[in-house]
Amino acid sequence: MNTQLIKISSADDPVIAKVGNLIRNGRLVAFPTETVYGLGANGLDSSACQKIFDVKGRPPDKPLTLHVSSVKMLGFIAVITPIAERLIETFLPGPLTLILPKRPSVPDAISRGLPTVGVRLPANDIARALIDASGVPIAAPSANLSGRPAPATAQAVLSDLDGKIPLILDGGACRIGRSSTVVDVSTEDWRVVRPGLITRAMLAAAIKF
Fold it and tell me: DSSP letter at 179?
């Protein structure tokens, strides 16, 4: 497989519509967010999501995160808890992944049998435009081989996944360059699963507001 790298500078680029069609039809595409590059697949297509595990060498019991372009789309795939609502109002779009109770539309290939799902609304115009163009939530862990550093540039993605995926959407270097904060807000006993730019203190302040 030849991996094509397409440079893009704007969310208005017409190539996004073509790439969204690839995702909708089960192909894998790497794309930029404000944190790191993600390896995207149709988040409602179990076969497409399985390709992510195969390409990355991802542990089979590790769930995937779904990327959405709006709070409305988020509500279609997850139950928005009261605590999550406060964090959404404060931090989203932004570098925060919320673990929430999943809705039946989320396939087991995403949740790996868990009753919850990780959801992210990225603060990157290209990422949100791609999700809109695909018409589905995009499952997207970092676009690297498992165990390797999460990539902040398209060239870093290429060095890991060249020949393994059909396309990399090059939107330049990621603004933050580190993975998002992950917080489990599926119950009132919320907890930080992975630290990131948004700290526990910032989360607590928003929740108590």
Answer: P
| Per-residue model confidence as pLDDT tens digits over 70-99 | 999 999 999 999 999 999 999 999 999 999
Q: Domain limits of the chain?
A: 4-208
pTM value is 0.97
How far from each other are the two terminal CA atoms of the chain, in whole angstroms?
51
Q: Model confidence over 192-201: pLDDT tens digits?
A: 999 999 999 9
The architecture in CATH of the region 4-208 reads Alpha-Beta Complex (3.90)
Closest C-alpha among 62, 64, 134, 52 to residue 97: 64
Contacts 24+ apart (CB under 8 A), 83-88: 83/185, 83/188, 83/190, 83/207, 84/185, 86/206, 86/207, 86/209, 87/183, 87/185, 87/203, 87/206, 87/207, 88/121
Q: Quick one: tokens of 105?
A: 């539309």
Please state, in angstroms and rounded to a whole number, the distance separating the CA atoms of residues 195 and 199.
7
